[in-house]
Amino acid sequence: MARPPTISDVIDKNCDGCAYCVDSCPTRSITLLEFMLRGDIKKVVEVSERTCIGCGICM
User: Fold this and answer.
1) pLDDT of amino acid 5
2) Domain limits of the chain?
3) Contacts of 13 (CB under 8 A, 6+ apart)
4) Do the Cβ atoms of 6 and 52 come closer than 8 Å?
5) May I ask the CATH architecture of the domain 1-59?
6) Tens-digit pLDDT profile for residues 5-34
7) Are 8 and 58 in contact (CB under 8 A)?
């Protein structure tokens, strides 16, 4: 029996903002967000569960 695809789940503490996952996503389901926090620029990714196909390329 086939398993349903897993939606990408990026762990923020492991993300360094390199955008590898953004560039490699075949469905462009990952967006890199930048924001200021206590005077530092932080980067996190946001995954669209609607368009993510669970291919695992970003992992």
Assistant:
1) 60
2) 1-59
3) none
4) no
5) 2-Layer Sandwich (3.30)
6) 667 777 777 788 899 999 999 999 999 999
7) yes
More confident residue, 56 or 6: 56
Q: Up-side HSE of residue 51: CA atoms within 13 Å toward CB?
A: 10
**Dist CA 38 CA 27 (whole Å):** 33
Q: Which tokens sit at 3?
A: 């398993």
pTM equals 0.74
Lookup: tokens for 45: 């990714």
CB burial of residue 30 (10 Å; 0-12, 13-18, 19+): buried
pLDDT at 1 over 60: no
